[in-house]
Design a protein that fits this description.
By secondary structure, the chain is an alpha+beta fold. The chain has three domains: 2-132, Arc Repressor Mutant, subunit A, CATH 1.10.10.10; 183-415, Aspartate Aminotransferase, domain 2 (3-Layer(aba) Sandwich), CATH 3.40.640.10; 419-520, Aspartate Aminotransferase, domain 1 (Alpha-Beta Complex), CATH 3.90.1150.10. It is 38% helix and 17% strand. It has helices at 34-49, 60-73, 86-93, 97-110, 129-132, 150-154, 183-196, 208-221, 237-248, 263-271, 314-327, 385-395, 401-412, 415-442, 467-476, 506-520, and strands spanning 2-5, 11-17, 20-25, 113-116, 119-123, 138-139, 142-143, 231-234, 254-259, 275-282, 285-286, 297-300, 330-334, 359-364, 376-379, 446-449, 456-461, 482-483, 496-500. It has an eight-stranded mixed sheet with strand order 8-15-14-13-12-9-10-11, with helices on both faces. A four-stranded antiparallel sheet has the order 16-17-19-18, with helices on one face. It has a three-stranded antiparallel sheet with strand order 1-2-3, with no helix packed on it. α14 packs parallel to α16. The N and C termini lie far apart (68 Å).
Length: 521
């Protein structure tokens, strides 16, 4: 049914029955009470289209507003149609007049109705979505699809980020064990930060308290050399890499990443317009060799190479710094899980080695605390602070200030360091437990690279199977193991499985290792 006016301005409605349009028209032009009759009849008709339930969880006002809005947008209330008076509609619907008046006021404020003093509300011209639907253009009998960018179309074929449905399962990499986190202490920090938020005096995206606490922690434990103002707080390490890429890379610039390496870096650099080249590794990390191409930016994970876990020694680090300085390249150092080192004191960050090379440092709390905290940070050279703060605002890459202030207290009071030390001991035990379980269950089918730290390890496969097929079979059996081939950016036949151990206790590790052994044997 469509309710509206005919060409003479008289009220009418049309019913579509069996493909025919039967017009029922009521000529009231000679009636001295025309306006009242139209209003009452319109109210009666609307009462048949609007169904209000006093038993609903929603108020009568909300129900009425939503249903009137739906009648307008669907075209069942025609443009320029005048509604009944609030009194007549309230009587027809058996609701209070105020309910109707408030609904009309709300829809007028939204632009669906037009009101004027002393006159009944009118359906606004152009408020019907049905009337605005463009005709579907067909080419070769196929509907033309809504166009998206080439970047968006490429997402379906990307191997990053890996998406796992349902709850986390062993051996999903990159996850901290949130069951071991001191949630009660963290909750107290959050409550205090929330209470103090109303007295904050500045509008910076970066909490001064967190900048200071983080700078002191990184200087002591990672050898980072920076002032608090050089630290930018972002929603994640990935957001930090994207911010760096947007500021430091132009379309067509060459960027180097490790291969195998971190797919998130590849995605961020490529999205910024870079030509991304995978540089193979040797036993010490990225192998510079005799390469002739000149990069604008170099992305590395020197503390625990992703995904092999290799540590880049001081000699290779100095070689990389000297090379970058000689060609004018910037280095992005992703220190994603360097808090956890098992064999000796960790090597200091590349950023703090003191050469004049431009090094941008990336870190995250998602590995050292728990994944859902969603706070990362970058450290930029002093001369780039202003442009990075401007870019950070432009891209909207900020974290909630109360969350930042809570984290500042957590670090300042020593709880963060205490948690890291506790988890370092626990994760070392779990790494050793996984090594033992893999040796028992898989024999010589897998070759393990034992990491000196971090939260995951790489188990290389021989020629007996493709790693992507093994990964798919393991996922069907309830075990997550990322294939090495999805992280390689140069031509190679390397195959392997990337296994996380940090988030899983001994029972979970043993159970998953048995499944893994059964599938690879």
């Amino acid at each position: 049914m469509v309710i509206g006016l005919d060409a003479s301005g008289n009220f009418g409605f049309w019913k579509h029955i069996d493909g025919y349009c039967l017009r029922h028209h009521l000529d009231l032009t000679k009636d001295p009470n025309l306006k009242k009759s139209q209003s009452q009849l319109m109210g009666d008709l609307l009462s048949g289209l609007i169904k209000l339930s006093p038993d609903s969880d929603e108020t009568l006002l909300r129900q009425l507003t939503q249903q009137l809005r739906s009648l307008i947008t669907s075209g069942r209330l025609a443009p320029a149609q005048r509604l009944p008076s609030s009194r007549d509609l309230a009587q027809s619907l058996s609701v209070g007049r105020n309910t109707v008046s408030f609904a009309i006021e709300q829809l007028a404020a939204e632009g669906y109705l037009t009101t004027s003093p002393g006159r009944r509300a009118v359906v606004s011209i152009g408020a019907s979505l049905d009337a605005r639907k463009p005709q579907r253009i067909k080419t070769d009998q196929r509907t033309v699809e809504l166009r998206v960018s080439p970047w968006a179309r490429s997402l379906h074929n990307a191997s990053w980020p890996p998406i796992y449905r349902g709850r986390p399962r062993a051996f999903q990499p990159g996850l901290a064990d949130e069951r071991e986190f001191p949630h009660d202490i963290w909750a107290r920090c959050l409550r205090r930060a929330a209470r103090s938020a109303r007295v904050r005096g500045d509008s910076s995206h970066n909490s001064a308290a967190l900048r200071k606490a983080l700078q002191q922690h990184l200087a002591e434990h990672r050898g980072v050399k920076a002032t608090p103002d050089q630290i930018m707080i972002v929603p994640s390490a990935q957001a930090g890499i994207a911010l760096i890429a947007k500021v430091m890379i132009g379309t067509g610039d060459l960027a180097w990443i490790e291969s195998p390496g971190y797919g998130g870096a590849f995605a961020a650099l490529q999205s910024a317009g870079a030509i991304v080249a995978g540089v193979p590794l040797d036993e010490f990390g990225m192998a510079l060799g005799e390469r002739k191409d000149i990069p604008r930016l170099i992305f590395v994970t020197p503390s625990h190479q992703y995904p092999t876990g290799r540590l880049m020694p001081a000699g290779r680090r100095l070689e990389l710094l000297r090379f970058a300085a000689s060609v004018g390249a910037s280095i992005v150092e992703d220190d994603y899980d360097s808090e956890f080192h098992y064999e000796a004191r960790p090597v200091s960050a590349l950023q703090g080695m003191g050469l004049s090379t431009t090094v941008l440092y990336v870190g995250t709390f998602s590995k050292s605390m728990f994944a859902d905290i969603r706070i990362g940070y970058i450290i930029v050279p002093e001369r780039l602070i202003e442009i990075f703060e401007l870019a950070q605002r432009h891209m909207g890459l900020s974290a909630a200030i109360p969350m930042q202030d809570a984290l500042a207290e957590f670090i300042r009071n020593g709880m963060y360091l205490a948690h890291v030390r506790k988890m370092t001991r626990l994760y070392k035990e779990r790494r050793d437990q996984l090594l033992k379980a893999l040796a028992s269950e898989t024999g010589d089918r897998l070759s393990i690279e034992i990491p000196a730290g971090g939260m995951q390890l790489l188990a290389r496969c021989g020629a007996f199977a493709r790693d992507d097929q093994l990964s798919a079979r393991l996922l069907e059996a309830g075990v997550v193991a990322r294939p090495l081939s999805s992280m390689v950016f140069h031509k190679t036949k390397a195959q392997g499985l990337f296994l996380g151990f940090a988030a899983w206790n001994d029972v979970e590790i043993e159970r998953a290792a048995r499944i893994l052994g059964r599938i690879v044997r």
